Amino acid sequence: MTHPDLTLVQVPEPSQIRSRQALERLLAVGEELLANNRFEEASVAEIASLADSSVGTFYRLLGDKDTLSLLLLQRFMQKLADTTASLRDAGAGCRDLAEGVRLLTDTYIDIYTGRRGVLRAVILRASRSAAFRDRVHQLNTHISSTACDCLEPFMEQVLHSNPQQAVASGVHMVLGALNQHTVTGTLGGLPAGELRDEIARLLLGYLRGPQ
Hints:
Blueprint (H helix, E strand, L loop, with lengths): L16 H19 L8 H7 L4 H8 L2 H21 L1 H4 L6 H16 L3 H13 L1 H22 L11 H22 L10 H14 L3
């Protein structure tokens, strides 16, 4: 499957080194504010100051705060897509369905860890924008397709009348659970230290359970 087009906004790359460095600092500050759930309340002046830049430089490089927000979401979604794509090769080292499932779930958990603010912003943006939801759907399709590729050698171990459908559906159930856990900080009172084992058990149980 081809890589999904997750382009939300395009910002011309600055030609000067100082401007490129300023842009990277602005993005880094934006990511930190998102992580701390402070992005929405932060002003352009505050973002520029935290990035050791100026308001004029902010507007010259980004145009407005919404463009920065879209760039940050775009970078997160692209990272998720790139990491997901790497699972096709990583899955070749798994010996059975259980190891393949654990590879998938651990990878997703690693990506989600520490990104509560970003996921919250993704959810809010998706609720408001049909164009953004379309990009999320493309990413979800990419994730489920890659999961099927990763587990392809073990499909005979999936006890479901439609193994491909089971894997695709199961992965989205896992991502939904991780969204809940990441955004709210809890998943049915599950201790954080047990999250990896229980999420893997959830998907494996669904794939192996009686149908």
